[in-house]
Write the structure tokens for this entry.
Amino acid sequence: MSRRPRPIPSYAADLQVEWGEDCFLGDYCVIGIRPMANAANRRLIDHGTPQRVAIGDRSIIGTHCTIYHDVGIGEDCRLGDHAVIREGCRIGRRCVVGTKVDIQYDVIIADDVRILNEAHIAGGTVIGEGSFIGPGVSTANDRRIDLDDYQDRGTRQPVIGRKVFVGQAAIILPGVTIGDGAIIGAGTVVTKDVPAGATVLAPGVKGEVRAATLADAIANRRRAAGGRG
């Protein structure tokens, strides 16, 4: 005899979401989901009192978006179709979250950040003001590998500074700090901290620091172009 499943708890958007002025909501969105857990989970999940979702003035939520409870989204933000925002996230003003971006729990995103399509932002990641995260970028927050008896013993979240440029399909590993104004080239695997203003390129599996400052990188480009620009 088949049984009907219980619905995952979620809010009614018109009752439980604090909407700003002149917002737009696409079709088939789900807002206010509470995280669920069973024996498959390793991370402890708090099933406490549901918390509100606040969405700032003039923000646009695309179709098929999923926003968990206890989320704050600032003014003039735009979420692309199929974006997922997990519980505890805080997103600043004038941010863009692209199509199919996956933002995990407790992520902090400052003002004027752009995260392009299909990026994965691991739980607890911090992204500074004005940074650019290219398509398909992935961050990670746990270095341990234990397929037999994995236990949640906390995470090591990446921290991305102000006005950092992260190119397409770059991977930022757990615990890495990227300084303000740094440039991470497309496809780079970032395994250690990057100084402010440095440029990291990807000649092979691991990136290496090639230019000491952003000014050096611009000067090198101009010399290669014969002084133009």
The longest strand covers residues 30-33. The mean pLDDT is 85.
